[in-house]
Every structure is written in structure tokens, then in C-alpha cells.
């Protein structure tokens, strides 16, 4: 069946291309590989395919190849070529091993051609006959169509240069936009908050867009003093600037992920400072409206694009880290988050979201046979409390059980999975060092979560989980979850990408990530990070900060690649090597992480040792 996906349009239409170095009216001499395919070169082997006439110009103009000569239907007809083209050479047939001689490659190509239905010529034109060289720019196809010869020669050249199969071209991947820690600040202009509180979300842009109030700076400074935070979260101006940059750099993404913390820090304090007589129900409504505003703005920026949202520790109708299972807040927020899900999956997602903010959904086509499992791991946090302030040690149990069942089902059905939450598993090294905990003397390091259960479950399915996404620290980080149970060293670890924040509250430049996903395996092939030129979004320029594969010279973000990178970090305890220096530069967008370098060996141990015992064994061995 003909593949019309633009990302799959391929490079060879030998029977309808003229020599691009000659004019349309000039007679062409014998065609050559270089004249037919000047923009196509190793290490990307070409594929032999016929395309529909109406798609011809689009495919070849984008490749820098002159396609005007035979682009029209009338000219195609004059060339004696059928208008209904079909593929006659596919990725499954190529490339050939480097041990094959040129003659062997030509023979294999000819056999592949004869084994498939061939519809490239009209009934009056036989594969062994000449085409009109004046009209079509080819002297002959003689015994072998020249494209097959070019195919075998170019594939052979690719192998001769690389000695291994060429890397998958980027245009065969699915782009995805990865966001986190937006922390939208509706209180930035306190004079406007009463209007926001009283109006539906649909009118919020009309309230927020006009110039700020004359006393905005003074009133917001007073609010910040009453409700201290480490800095300023995402204002309307910064949020809109980030959306503009996303639309400019991430147009056409297949899906968007938001790994938690949609609303600003100290949200509860700020609201009740401005509205001291407000009720809890009124506060819940304002929280829900703010979350809806953020999601709706993303929907408007990426229409008809799946957007998957996890909740963070700030996303609650109570206070930071306080949330009740089965609350109205979860039920109502779940309806908003899942509103555009496929009908067949929406009800189940809303049901589990109403329980504890978790859900599963199929990743969109063309990604094949893959699911996204989203967790609200606030329920797993060591700081979690109910809205009444009580401990709930069993709060996480339903999610952990659900996660294990989903992964077991995925393994049984040979599905691939992404897992997304907000708070990462493992050691919180920043808090550990800040509290001067001596973990080498037996003191327990500070952990992000109350137990290692979630990480243990995920790491036990390294054959299923292609990627885990977390955030929370606002920094650009990675992790590797290894199954540390008995006999686990042979198991595949799970690569973890921690997404940096839009919020500049830690004086970090706002940033977002654009990923490239292999549609066949759901593996993360590459990602690029884009950051703002300032913290406010005012006249900000958003530019690419780095590309993972280019910076670290790795083929992908697989467990093997992340394992290789963390091993390189471990072999560089001073953090002075090129890879370590790159990581320290990118960790905190806009500044070099000099403080992290002081604890580099301990930090590196935290990247791939999520249990207390494994971390201590690694870090203390380095200390000695």
C-alpha cells in the first residue's frame, strides 16, 4: 500500500527525473547517480520507490532536487509512465551487507524488483525498453533501471563509510513537546485577580493581556513578602512568550507532555492574602480555573494534538503537598485533563484520575502499540498529607498496584510504555547535603519519595518501559533506574529524562524540550532543549541550548546510551571532562552549575542508584 506520510516520502523516482544540471528543453546524455540524486548522499541509503504524481514536486523540491521536468500529469503521461504509482522497493529490502560485491547487490536489487508487483510503466512500456530520453531525461533502463544501480552503489558507499547500518534519519521520528513546572502565576498583577476570580476562563486573556496596573510592582512585592518564595514564577507575559516559542519551534509535534506543577508556588497563601474571607470551595474553584487556563492555552497553541498532563505537588485544591484521594478536585480536574482523549479510553482515564490522579492512554499514531502511564506521585511523597494534615501511609498503594498490573499487561501484549510523574524516585542530594547528612556513617539520605516501591516496579520492567519522565527539581537532568533485586544485573535499566522548568523561580532561564521518538519502538531517539534569553519573557529570544545526540555523541537516549554516559561521569570524579562539563553547563539553564560540581561524585551516584543502600555503597566508595 502506498505510504503518503510526508515523513516517509523517499528519494528515488528514476523514470521521471531529468538531469538537474540541464534545462528542460535540452537533450540529456546518459543519466548518472550524481546527476539524478545530487542532494542524496551517504550515510543515508536511498530507497527505491514510486510516488503519486501530485506529491512529486513536494517530495523533491524539499530535497533540493529539480522535479519540475516531469511533475505535471501531462508530462508523466508523455513519459509513458502510469499515473498510479506503487512502491517497488521498500526498507525491508535494503541496505545490503558490506560483504556483498557490487554485482551481488545489483542481483539482489533485481530479484527484489522482480519479486514485487511492478506498476511503474504503462502497458506499452516494458521494463527492458527505453524511455523517451528527450522527454524524460534518461538514456535507457536497459537491463537494469539506473535507479537500481544507483541504489546499490549508494548503499554500498554508505556501508563503506560507516561500516555499519546508517543511523535512522530524523524525519522518520515523531516529534514531541515535553514541558514541566510551568507554575503559572495568576497573582502577578494583584489588581487583576478579583476579575480573574469572578470571570470564566474564556475571558482571562482579555483581563491579563492589557498593560499591568500602575502599582503592580509594589503590590506584587508585598504579596511575595507575605508569602515568601525563592523567586518569581511564570507571569502572563512569560507564559505567552513560551507559547510563542513553542509554536515556532515545535509546530507539528505528535503530542505534548506536561509533567506537573501547573500552578504557582505559595498559591494558597497568596489567594487567602488577597481574599481573607474566601471559602475553601471558592479557593478550589480558582485552582481549577488556573489549571484549566494553562491546559486550554496549550490546547489552543497545539490544536488537535494530544496533550497529556500529570499533576505535581503544587496542583491541589488544599495546599502544597496536601491532597485527598477521591476528592471532587481530582474528579473535576480529570474531566478537564482527559477531555480530548479517544472516547474508548476517556472513561477509564477519568475513573482512575478521580481516584488518585493517575491514568493510562495510548500514545498517538504513528507510534505503534505503545502506552503512556501517568502517575500522581504526590501520594508517594514523603511530604504528602491529607487535606486535614494527617499522614496516610497507604495512600500510594492503589497507584502502585495499578502501575504493576498495567506493566504486566503491556509485557503480555508486547507493548512499549512511557511512564510519567512529577516527583522523581531516588535520592534528593540537594536536601541531603543541605542538611549535612552523613550517609557514610549510616545516616539515611533524604529521599524524594516515601518508599522505593514505584522505582522498584518500573525498573523491573526494563524490557517494557522505554522512557520515564519526571521533573520537580526545575533542572535539566537524567537518571537510570536499575532493578536492584536479586539476579537483576542482567535486566535492562530504564532511562529517565527529567524535564527543566518554564518557571524561572530558581533564577534558571525558562526552557522546554523537543524530543524525537521512534514510532516503531517508542524509544526516545534525541531531544533538544530551548531556553529563553531572560527570566521575564519581555522581548525574549528563545534559542536552542543544546542537542543531546550532538553534545554527547550518543546514538539515542536509550538505557545503553544513558548507562554509557553515567559511566563516563563516574570515571571523571572532578567533573572536568567534556561530557561532565556539558552536563554542568546544561543542568541549570543559563548558568554553570558550579555548586553541583563540588558534589559531583555523590551526584553521579544518585543518577543510577535509586535505593538508599545502592547510593550509599556508591557514594561512600568514592569518598574513600
Summarize the structure in words.
This protein is an alpha/beta fold and 624 residues long. The protein has two domains: 6-166, no CATH class; 172-428 and 449-540, Metallo-dependent phosphatases (Purple Acid Phosphatase, chain A, domain 2, 4-Layer Sandwich). It contains 23 helices and twelve strands. A six-stranded mixed beta sheet has the order 3-2-1-10-11-12. A six-stranded mixed beta sheet has the order 4-5-6-7-9-8, sandwiched between helices. α12 packs parallel to α13 (328-337) and α13 runs antiparallel to α14. Mean pLDDT is 80; it is low at 1-102 and 104-170.
Keywords, separated by commas or semicolons:
alpha/beta; Purple Acid Phosphatase, chain A, domain 2; six-stranded mixed β-sheet; 12 strands; 10% strand; disordered N terminus
Briefly say what this structure is.
This protein is of the alpha/beta class.
Q: Please, how many helices?
A: 23
Shape: globular
Helix content: 25-40%
Question: Given this structure, which CATH class of the largest domain is correct?
Answer: Alpha Beta
Beta-strand content bin: 5-15%
Count of strand segments: 12
As laid out across the biggest beta sheet, the strand order is 3-2-1-10-11-12
CATH architecture label name of the largest domain? 4-Layer Sandwich
Q: How many domains in all?
A: 2
What is the CATH topology assignment of the largest domain? Answer: Purple Acid Phosphatase, chain A, domain 2
What average pLDDT do the residues reach? 80
**Which ranges are low-confidence, i.e. pLDDT below 50, for 5 or more consecutive residues?**
1-102, 104-170
Structural class, by secondary structure, is alpha/beta
Q: What is the CATH homology-level superfamily of the largest domain?
A: Metallo-dependent phosphatases
Cα Rg: 28 Å
Question: Can you summarize the main beta sheet?
Answer: 6 strands, mixed
Give the distance, in angstroms, between the N- and C-terminal Cα atoms: 63 Å
Amino acid at each position: 500500500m502506498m505510504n503518503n506520510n510526508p515523513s516517509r516520502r523517499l528519494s528515488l523516482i528514476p523514470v521521471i527525473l531529468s538531469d538537474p544540471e540541464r534545462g528542460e528543453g535540452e537533450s540529456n546524455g546518459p543519466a548518472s547517480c550524481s546527476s539524478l540524486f545530487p542532494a542524496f548522499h551517504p550515510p543515508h541509503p536511498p530507497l527505491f520507490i514510486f510516488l503519486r504524481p501530485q506529491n512529486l514536486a513536494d517530495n523533491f523540491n524539499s530535497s533540493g532536487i529539480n522535479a519540475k521536468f516531469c511533475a505535471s500529469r501531462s508530462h508523466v503521461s508523455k513519459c509513458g509512465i502510469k499515473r498510479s504509482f506503487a512502491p517497488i522497493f521498500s526498507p525491508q529490502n535494503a541496505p545490503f551487507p558490506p560483504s556483498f560485491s557490487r554485482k551481488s547487490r545489483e542481483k539482489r536489487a533485481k530479484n527484489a524488483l522482480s519479486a514485487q508487483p511492478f506498476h511503474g510503466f504503462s502497458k506499452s512500456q516494458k521494463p527492458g525498453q527505453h524511455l523517451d530520453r528527450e522527454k524524460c531525461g534518461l538514456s535507457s533502463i536497459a537491463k537494469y533501471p539506473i535507479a537500481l544501480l544507483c541504489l546499490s552503489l549508494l548503499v554500498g558507499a554508505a556501508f563503506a563509510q560507516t561500516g555499519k547500518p546508517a543511523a535512522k534519519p530524523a524525519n522518520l521520528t515523531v516529534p514531541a513537546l515535553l514541558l514541566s513546572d510551568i507554575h503559572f502565576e495568576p497573582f502577578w498583577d494583584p489588581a487583576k485577580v478579583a476579575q480573574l476570580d469572578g470571570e470564566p476562563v474564556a475571558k482571562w486573556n482579555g483581563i491579563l493581556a492589557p498593560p499591568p496596573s500602575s502599582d503592580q510592582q509594589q503590590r506584587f512585592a508585598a504579596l511575595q513578602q507575605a508569602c515568601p518564595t525563592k523567586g518569581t514564577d511564570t507571569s502572563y507575559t512569560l507564559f505567552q512568550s513560551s507559547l510563542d516559542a513553542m509554536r515556532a519551534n515545535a509546530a507539528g509535534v505528535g503530542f505534548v507532555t506536561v509533567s506537573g506543577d501547573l500552578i504557582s508556588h505559595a498559591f494558597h497563601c497568596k489567594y487567602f492574602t488577597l481574599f481573607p474571607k474566601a471559602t475553601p470551595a471558592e479557593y478550589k474553584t480558582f485552582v481549577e480555573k488556573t489549571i484549566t487556563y494553562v491546559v486550554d492555552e496549550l490546547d489552543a497553541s497545539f490544536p488537535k494534538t494530544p496533550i497529556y498532563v500529570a499533576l505535581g505537588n503544587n496542583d491541589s485544591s488544599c495546599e502544597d503537598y496536601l491532597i485527598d484521594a477521591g476528592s471532587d478536585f481530582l474528579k473535576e480536574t480529570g474531566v478537564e485533563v482527559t477531555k480530548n482523549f479517544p472516547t474508548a479510553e476517556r472513561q477509564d482515564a477519568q475513573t482512575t484520575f478521580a481516584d488518585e490522579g493517575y491514568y493510562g492512554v495510548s500514545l498517538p499514531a504513528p507510534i505503534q502499540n505503545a502506552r503512556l502511564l501517568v502517575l500522581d506521585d504526590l501520594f508517594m511523597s514523603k511530604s504528602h498529607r491529607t487535606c486535614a494534615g494527617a499522614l496516610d501511609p497507604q495512600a500510594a498503594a492503589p497507584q502502585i498496584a495499578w502501575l504493576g498490573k498495567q506493566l504486566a499487561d503491556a509485557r503480555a501484549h508486547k507493548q512499549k510504555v512511557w511512564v510519567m510523574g512529577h516527583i522523581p524516585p531516588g535520592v534528593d542530594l540537594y536536601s541531603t547535603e543541605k542538611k549535612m547528612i552523613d550517609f557514610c556513617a549510616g545516616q539515611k539520605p533524604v529521599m524524594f519519595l516515601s518508599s522505593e516501591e514505584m522505582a522498584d516496579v518500573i525498573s523491573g520492567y526494563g524490557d517494557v518501559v522505554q522512557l520515564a519522565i519526571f521533573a520537580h527539581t526545575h533542572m535539566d537532568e537524567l537518571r537510570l533506574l536499575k532493578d536492584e533485586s536479586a539476579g537483576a544485573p542482567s535486566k535492562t535499566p530504564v532511562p529517565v529524562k527529567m524535564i527543566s522548568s518554564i518557571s524561572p523561580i530558581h533564577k534558571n532561564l525558562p526552557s522546554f524540550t523537543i524530543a524525537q521518538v521512534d514510532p516503531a519502538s517508542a524509544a526516545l531517539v534525541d531531544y533538544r532543549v530551548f531556553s529563553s534569553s531572560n527570566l521575564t519573557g519581555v522581548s525574549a529570544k528563545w534559542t536552542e541550548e543544546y542537542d543531546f545526540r550532538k553534545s554527547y555523541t550518543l546514538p539515542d537516549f536509550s538505557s545503553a546510551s544513558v548507562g554509557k554516559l553515567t559511566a563516563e561521569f563516574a570515571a571523571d570524579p572532578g567533573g572536568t571532562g567534556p561530557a561532565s562539563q556539558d552536563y554542568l553547563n546544561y543542568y541549570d539553564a543559563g548558568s554553570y552549575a558550579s555548586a553541583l560540581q563540588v558534589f559531583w561524585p555523590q551526584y553521579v551516584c544518585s543518577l543510577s542508584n535509586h535505593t538508599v543502600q545502592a547510593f550509599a555503597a556508591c557514594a561512600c566508595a568514592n569518598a574513600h
